[in-house]
Write a structure and sequence with these properties.
Blueprint: E1 2-7, E2 13-17, H1 22-31, E3 38-42, H2 48-60, E4 63-67, E5 72-76, E6 84-85, H3 87-90, H4 99-107, E7 109-113, H5 126-134, E8 138-142, E9 145-149, E10 157-159, H6 165-176, E11 181-185, H7 191-202, E12 206-208, E13 214-218, E14 227-229, H8 234-246, E15 250-254, H9 262-270, E16 274-277, E17 281-285, E18 296-297, H10 309-316, E19 322-326, H11 335-342, E20 346-350, E21 353-357, E22 366-368, H12 372-382, E23 388-392, H13 395-398, H14 404-410, E24 414-419
Helix pairs in contact: 1-2, 1-7, 4-6, 5-6, 6-7, 8-10, 8-12, 10-12, 11-12
The chain binds ligand EPZ.
Ligand EPZ binds near residues 122, 123, 330, 372 and 400.
Length: about 425
């Protein structure tokens, strides 16, 4: 098994270029099967999850050209040959479920292996299925699979009990080819939803309101191939912002969209970090003021993103004062706390919140990455820990951060990858 060895690093310094968004490219790849025309995608990050989604599209009949040298993908789905997402791919990546709405809309049938839970929670898909049912699909479950069938999907009024990102994306894709109008309320407002809607509208869909809590989709008969460059990854952006802060460094983050990381800018400023930005880059100066504690509550966008919670907690473990973190999106996203405490942090869970006593000198230890972002948080903590931090299960990290080691080494971090 591969591991990272992280040594205490001097303040990170220099420039980093943000890659395309993992959580934007995955639903957009699924949406590409809604047309028999060719879709060309740009700014595509070279990630394991993208490769898994490409394999899934090939399973249903797409031709997918992966050209990561040029951050490009070409997807052509002239005919759907199978309406199924097999377990061996779904178990590798929960986001495989995002193909369900597009398969259902294009063929009237979708059979997808139920994605299991993961370290951060049960991850149910009830809201996805409720949306499909509202549009006239019949849902059956059995033997670890869920199947949806519909002669023709019909537009409906749908209210989401929770602004689920995946459910919003799946229902938008299904509604794009449904008969009539779908009004979707209490939806996710994440930038990745807006990017998906922009892509679909370029294909000829009629979607209004993406980025607000209500989206109107007028179904059309056919969608067409198009070209699209995905947005930069706002969580990779936030991860490098916090990495600069925790090492008290000075880092210029390029190809970023400051508008997408406003909560992280606000929270870093509360901690005393100097943050300057223009429309495509963010400058972090963390050696100007002594850093102090603050409180964080994760919320659906535009609130503080749950995907930045663990990285920010690493920072709070090293600043002066006591902080609280309240994770409200996932029911079990504190697995990194035990690992951080093994490095000398002082973090206690009280109810649904975590209380962090800061200004701890962290020590290198052997720790385990429990999910993508928890793994990134342990790397950041390792930059401030005396001695060497050995991180295992790093496949979590490598599935979602393009050129992770290269980018950090370029900023002066001391991190190597070893095969056990
Ligand atoms: C997306 O997951 C992201 N993944 C996650 O990023 C991110 O953490 C999450 O949104 C929240 O922002 C991708 O975009 C590929 P949700 P998703 O549906 O769509 C509950 C990362 O690190 N829920 O918004 O699965 C669910 O249990 C990953 O890149 C239901 O109850 O998230 C959770 O508590 C991790 N029923 C909450 O909603 C449903 O049908 C948020 O889940 C669906 C969700």
């Amino acid at each position: 098994m591969a591991k990272y060895l992280v040594q205490k690093s001097k303040p990170l310094n220099g420039e980093v270029i943000i890659s395309g968004s993992k959580n934007a490219i995955l639903p957009i790849m699924a949406a590409a099967i809604l047309t028999r025309g060719k879709c060309e995608l740009f700014e595509v990050p070279a990630l394991r999850d993208v490769d898994v989604m490409a394999k899934l599209l090939r399973c249903v009949g797409s031709t997918v050209v992966e050209d990561y040298e040029n951050s490009r993908l070409e997807i052509l789905t002239e005919e759907i040959l199978a309406e199924e997402a097999p377990y061996e791919l779904v178990k590798k990546m929960r986001a495989s479920i995002l193909i369900m709405g597009a398969l259902l809309a294009r063929t009237g049938k979708a059979r997808v292996a139920l994605p299991g839970g993961c370290a951060i929670g049960a991850r149910p898909i009830d809201l996805h299925l409720k949306g499909f049912q509202a549009m006239g699909a019949t849902i059956t479950e059995g033997h670890g699979y869920v199947e949806a069938r519909a002669e023709r999907l019909v537009g409906a009024n749908i209210y989401l009990d929770f602004p689920s990102v995946g459910a919003t994306e799946n229902i938008i894709m299904a509604a794009s080819l449904a008969q009539g109008i779908t009004i979707l309320e209490n939806v996710a407002e994440e930038p990745e939803i807006v990017d998906l809607a922009n892509f679909l509208n370029k294909m000829g869909a009629k979607i209004k309101g993406a980025g607000t809590d209500t989206i109107k989709i007028e179904g059309v008969k056919e969608l067409f191939g198009t070209k699209h460059a995905v947005i930069p990854d706002r969580i990779e952006t936030g991860t490098f912002m916090v990495a600069a802060a925790i090492t008290r460094g000075t880092v210029l983050i390029k190809n970023a969209m400051p508008d997408h990381v406003k909560p992280i800018i606000a929270k870093l400023r509360e901690c005393g970090v100097v943050v300057e930005y223009n429309d495509e880059s963010i400058l972090i100066k963390a050696d100007i003021n002594p850093l102090v504690s603050t409180d964080v509550k994760t919320l659906p966008y535009p609130g503080f993103p749950t995907d930045m919670q663990s990285q920010f907690m690493s920072l709070l473990a090293t600043v002066k004062g006591s902080s609280t973190v309240n994770e409200t999106v996932f029911e079990n996203r504190y697995m990194h706390i035990g690992e951080l405490n093994r490095m000398g942090a002082n973090i206690k869970i009280e109810g649904r919140s975590a209380v962090i006593q800061g200004e701890k000198t962290l020590q290198g230890a052997q720790v385990i990455a429990t999910d993508l972002r928890a793994g990134a948080a342990l790397v950041l903590a390792g930059f401030m820990a005396e001695g060497v931090t050995e991180i295992s299960e790093i496949y979590h990290i490598e599935r979602g951060y393009e050129k992770f080691l290269v980018k950090f080494r370029k900023l002066g971090a001391t991190i190597i990858r070893i095969e056990d």
